[in-house]
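Help needed: design a sequence for this.
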């Protein structure tokens, strides 16, 4: 997998109606416009059913989750090959709303690796960041769950966990960059995250549910 250019903006569409179906495509087109104008990589992370139409807008797409399952009798699982063939170039793993065991995280990373897609493993604290980095994903994203969706950015509410996660990942594997999530929505939030050593941000509701998502994205990237 070719290394993605940092700093990254990773926008998780979650299961918001504002980012489902035709709305997902519309939001992806806004991401594409801002990405082109600002010269920064923005990754869209839609629901599985929206991967193909969102990818057709030209924006880089990650899946929200994959399982470590192989092709065959695994009803209900999300196959790495399926999201790749739909147009995803990567996947989130272990988001706080889709927690996995360490063994499941490792299996999902291996599935992504065999399929040629990139991985962002989410972690909720510094200890989890260390464990995740040891599995050699493409990125680790530090996201304290108590701040997700609050509008309170981790980069200012708890800067020590961001810098600590960066140091922890660096100590385990210097080739695993750290992203910062939870409460990120404004340019000043992103600027603070980058100053703390993060190489991008993972965000959701602050953009997806904003009255004007494109304006919110433009404000976000102004912090770079």
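Sure. Designed sequence:
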């Amino acid at each position: 997998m070719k290394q993605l250019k940092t700093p990254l903006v990773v926008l998780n569409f979650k299961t918001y109606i504002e980012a489902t179906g035709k709305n997902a495509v519309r939001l992806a087109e806004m991401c594409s416009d801002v990405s082109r104008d600002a010269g920064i990589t923005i990754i869209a992370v839609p629901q599985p059913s929206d991967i193909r139409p969102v990818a057709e807008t030209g924006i880089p797409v990650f899946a929200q989750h994959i399982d470590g399952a192989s092709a065959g009798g695994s009803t209900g699982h999300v196959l790495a090959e399926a999201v790749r063939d739909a147009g995803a170039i990567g996947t989130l793993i272990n988001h706080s709303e889709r927690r996995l065991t360490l063994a499941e995280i490792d299996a999902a990373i291996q599935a992504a690796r065999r399929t040629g897609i990139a991985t962002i493993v989410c972690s909720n604290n510094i200890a989890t960041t260390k464990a995740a980095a040891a599995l050699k994903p493409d990125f680790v994203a530090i996201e304290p769950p108590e701040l997700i969706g609050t509008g309170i950015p981790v980069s200012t509410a708890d800067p020590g966990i961001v810098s600590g996660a960066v140091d922890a990942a660096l100590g385990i594997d210097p080739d695993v960059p750290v992203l910062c999530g939870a409460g990120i929505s404004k340019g000043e939030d992103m600027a603070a995250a980058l100053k703390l050593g993060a190489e991008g941000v993972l965000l959701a509701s602050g953009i997806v549910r904003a009255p004007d998502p494109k304006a919110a994205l433009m404000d976000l990237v102004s912090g770079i």
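The chain has a mean pLDDT of 91.
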